[in-house]
Amino acid sequence: MTPPTAPTASAAATPPGGGKPGTSLRDLIEQGAFATAQDWARERQVWEVVDEIDRMRPVDAVAAFRLLDADRAFDVFEDLEPAGQRAILEVMRGAEFSAFVDSLDPDDRARMLGELPAKVARRVLAGLSPQERALTATMLGYPENSAGRFMTPEVVVLREHLSVAAALAHVRERGADAETIYTLPIVDTQRHLTGVVELRDLVLADAASTVADLVGDAPRFVRATESAERAARLMADENILDLPVIDAEGRLVGLLTFDDADEVIEDADSEDASRQGGAKHWDGHYMAVSVLQLARTRAVWLVLLLIVSLLTVTVAHHFEDALEEVAALALFIPLLVGTGGKVGTQASSACVRALAIGEVRPSDLARVAVREAASGLLLGTGLGVLAVVAGLLFTGLDVATAVGLSLLLICLLGALVGGISPLVARKVGIDPALVSAPVVTTVVDVLGLVIYFLVASAVLGL
Amino acid sequence: MTPPTAPTASAAATPPGGGKPGTSLRDLIEQGAFATAQDWARERQVWEVVDEIDRMRPVDAVAAFRLLDADRAFDVFEDLEPAGQRAILEVMRGAEFSAFVDSLDPDDRARMLGELPAKVARRVLAGLSPQERALTATMLGYPENSAGRFMTPEVVVLREHLSVAAALAHVRERGADAETIYTLPIVDTQRHLTGVVELRDLVLADAASTVADLVGDAPRFVRATESAERAARLMADENILDLPVIDAEGRLVGLLTFDDADEVIEDADSEDASRQGGAKHWDGHYMAVSVLQLARTRAVWLVLLLIVSLLTVTVAHHFEDALEEVAALALFIPLLVGTGGKVGTQASSACVRALAIGEVRPSDLARVAVREAASGLLLGTGLGVLAVVAGLLFTGLDVATAVGLSLLLICLLGALVGGISPLVARKVGIDPALVSAPVVTTVVDVLGLVIYFLVASAVLGL
User: Cα separation of A24 and B193, whole Å?
Assistant: First the structure.
């Protein structure tokens, strides 16, 4: 044990592999330099190896995994992304296979199984011990993305009447098998959750007191079928380390631990980011998905929005006479629809995030509409004046006035559409993040163009 | 203690205040119904009250806070957002004031002080006990957003030679003052960090063993001056409950706890979301900031981008002859620049997120460029064919061909610009999230328009 004073020992300070630019496990594997790759992996920490394998195409991940020393392989496997685990499991055979699957935590196993092809999943289940198989099957019974899928079922529970000393002895006896012993749910004879004690309180308590003395307020909990994201956000908001998970009858079935909650939130935020960008979310690592998959996640929305965008052509077509008469009108189209889209994007990303972290509720619709409209009006007034001044550089006062006036209205429209769409989406049960920048932009493009041509027709008397 | 079987007892299932639609603490305060508001607050859990006060304008927050029973006021205060704490502290006087400030955790206090007006901050520091003042001053010495600002300095440390029994006795003696006892750093006589033991291992260990037997790999840690976000992401990636924080000499100065890490990540992600939307991030709650503040966070980027957008007018102006000759060209401008912006937004949001969670590194620039260019080319080919077909509904084959060909190139451009800009930003030390949807859209608008007019001129022989 040496004091970690050397700068390179700081994990947070040195990016993985950053010390030797140009060589990474991924590069070595792709170049077929397996001996060097093996040395690389031996010299690194487990998390550095995991990080590298996560970035590889599945076929390379399998090759890299085979190079690992047996005693490190399991540690690495456990921390890999599901896509990598899947690829490795699919090529594994016999005893090696069973050993790996059996030693995974039940929650990790259930999540991995949910993503495996049916044939492989059956093989995995068949290889498990009866007890492990029962745990896994129960977890697979909960809906995808529910708290039940992410919880750990291996929990140490206490009874209220126990003395502190007896409770500690019980924890010592059962603790080795549990994923955590920091949160100790208290249950009655029917395993109904009645309270929670923290290990901290148990350790610090007077040995003569009982568990009942240490129980605090009514315990927070989540039902196994409820959304894992919602439970995880609750934990983050209230600094809850592990949240008890109960079934429909109020019986304890597991704990959602802080690390599972972190994973749930990171995945949910990544999904929101993809959707906000106007793409489907893909499973797995950005560097590991193929270009074809990448394009496919984006194609659906682009084609849909291209079809909606044809409305802009229709609108412009409808006003083609005006465009032919005053060609200068066309000059400002990109500026106007572009700015409207930007105001809309600002409002929608603010509201999607505020909804996600619980700052805004669907019932705030009217209030948000007023706030965003007022903000859009303020911005529109400022930008409108700027646009009139700038417009005079290219054209006459009449067109410039039409541009400024249109910009004012388009900003109001953009802020309003961007601000309320996520709330309306949530109200009708759609993920607010689907009201993405591209969607808002497209809607504002079409309506903004209508506004522009109507205002221009009125101002120019066309 | 009753089993929580009634559906309304489920914290995650019932949104705060959701049981009684139409009434919320915020509404009651705004209506001046203080007696009803007091009853409301008495009947609710602390976190529900906090949630409501966070949503209020500062002046209302102070009024609501004054209604709370004395024994709950502190619990509520502790969990409020800094903006609300600030508002309340500014109107508080004398002993009440000192009591509040003294009983805050040092890390919460340091962060709050960092945001207070200098006059109030001095008053706060003056009111502290000498020991608390020293702790707070040390933390204020670390840069904003550094791990030092977020850590808890009150930590129970162990020495390697201790027996497990002695170590547990030490934890019992010192634990009450510490924010956590789950992570127990091990230090030498100079307080250099040499290892970490988890309380779990200590509790489960054989009483005859020593602390040295329980110490695992070289401990992960972060320097106090390093980025809190980076440290928090490391904790999330590696399921670290509490991360030791050391000074420049490798001496332990505190622990970054899981709840502080959650807060750091939530704030960083909210900031990314604002920036991705093309707005500055504001401090505080969406519902609590004024419309003027909201507009101000957005105005800077809008004005900047409006000025850049004038380039689109310049470009169109340059090709005004072509537009006058073939007015049909104008019809497709919103569709073309709009689609380019969308492809760019998809690519940039994917890469900003992948950078934030560490899936992509700045050194991946060339690889990302190739991936995004290939994906843009694929998407552009598909959309280009669609655009030719759709274009024929409105115009002749020559213009439709120009539109399709332009769209192909614009998609390639959009994906490339959107994909590599965040990496370039990180390389030159700018927050990648500032390469937002609006910024990418504006750049692609200008370049896309140039492409369109050049392609159209070539195809139509203008």
Answer: 30
